[in-house]
Amino acid sequence: MAVLTLRCCKAVFVLVFMVLIFSQQCEGQPTLSGGREVWHEEELIKHLLNGYVKEARPVLKPEDTVEVSVKFSFVRVEDLDEATDTFASSVFIVQVWTDPRLKWDLSKYGGVHTVRLPASKIWIPDLVLYNVAHREPPSSLYEETVTVTSDGSVVWVPMLTLYSTCPMDLSNFPYDVQTCRIVFGSWMHTSWEMNVTFISKEKAEMDVVLSEEDSSYLVHQHPQWELVGNRAKARLTLKKYDCCQQPFTLITISVQLRRRSQFYRYLTLGPAAVLGILVPVVFLVPARSQDKTTFGLLLLLTLTVLMSILQQAVPFNHGSMPRICSFYLGTMILTSISVVASVIVANICVRGARRKPVPAWAHSLFLGRGSLRRFLCIGDFGPVRNLYSSDISANAAASGIHLADLSRGEGNEPTLQEVEGEGLWWVTDQLLNNSADGSSESPATSGSAEDKKWSQLACYVKFIVGKMAADSAYENANQEWEELGRVIDRLLFIAFFALYVFTAAALL
């Protein structure tokens, strides 16, 4: 008897176990009904969509409100176009609501708990992008479907590529941070008809993340822009329009994007700074050198090439001007002025070749002992000396004549032009008369042949001594003009270097 009872228990246990296994395998699978197979999920979808009107809100009473919960998540920052002020991004938009018309009894459909329906055949929230930058609506990246559960809950997760307007300020290029806003809202339903909240209902703000830790997909970083903090801020607000008494719910996503500046730092900013510091170096080139003007023109040409490269990175038709463009313009203006100033200084340096002496006021201001050359740390310079200049100067000094002063025309003494002209005989007469032995008899009064030779020799000596004195005075005058140009170059170097530092500090 006991053995029979044990066998009966085993048989019941096996039967119950097989029934459970069979019921789990047959959930949603076809069964026989009236001699034909019945596919429960197919029948359920036909039942749900039969007579369904997608234009009607999923409410039982007209005064009821559809509660829609949303959540946003960034997939990738696609682009930020400076020329058109357009921000492109790919986002997930999780939308959850309840549709009473999509409920069913699990027991009638083989225990089917969830089905997937085309989003185009049921009512879905009409959240649209308000600040769209293109005429066509945002396009989905795949065929959209919704997930419906037996209690009427609907989950829709479209992934969209959005093109929104984003007014940009390029003043701080390439270290700029742009703030773009993506504004969503219902196009037809007020907040009384469709109430939009975040999935975390207790907050009016939420973070929109772009992080692999918070998502199940691989995040692709944009090569030029990065999302500050890898997250954006979404905020719910109510907006009331003149057309309607009830307010509309708006969802504003604020996105801060920082430009990756490494490439532009070495391509545009670095060369601009190097070229800017080369502008005052133009005035360190000797004024008589022909390469001085050529150097400045090469700087202008290089700046033009760099501005063409900058134009490819930043469109010049944009409403805001980057400060680096102002720096380029300022550097070009300084370079142009330096070329003009170099030509003027070169012209000043050759005035000595025109037998023009340095004016007394310029000599005292720039070349004197207490003049600017002393403050600019430029060493003193002396008059030009040659093989005979010391003897000539000694004899001239004994006679009360200062050859170095001939080029300046001080007092009643002859000028450089007078020395080269008729004044040459005045100098030689004074030198020879003072070097004579005190005899009052002129060699020209002697009638002897020897005295005539000495008279001719005296004329030749007069000419040679006068020529040497004139050349010495001319070279001294020429040297003074060159020293004047050197002092002016040093002043311009300091001035242009200060202007470059000021411009770079203000604009870079």
Task: Look at the structure and name the CATH superfamily of the largest domain.
Answer: Neurotransmitter-gated ion-channel ligand-binding domain
Order of helices and strands: HEEHEEEEEEEEEEEEEEHHHHHHHHH
Classify the beta-strand content into a percent band: 15-25%
Which value, in Å, is the CA radius of gyration? 49 Å
CATH architecture of the largest domain: Distorted Sandwich
**Main beta-sheet annotation:** 8 strands, mixed
CATH-assigned fold name of the largest domain: Acetylcholine Binding Protein, Chain: A
Strand runs, count: 16
Number of domains: 3
- Measured between the Cα atoms of the first and last residue, the distance is 102 Å
Distinct helical segment count: 11
Average pLDDT number: 77
Based on Cα principal axes, name the global outline: rod-shaped
Q: What is the helix content?
A: 25-40%
Ranges where pLDDT stays below 50 over 5 or more residues in a row are 19-29, 31-38, 401-424, 435-446
What is the SS-derived class? alpha+beta
Text of the CATH class of the largest domain: Mainly Beta
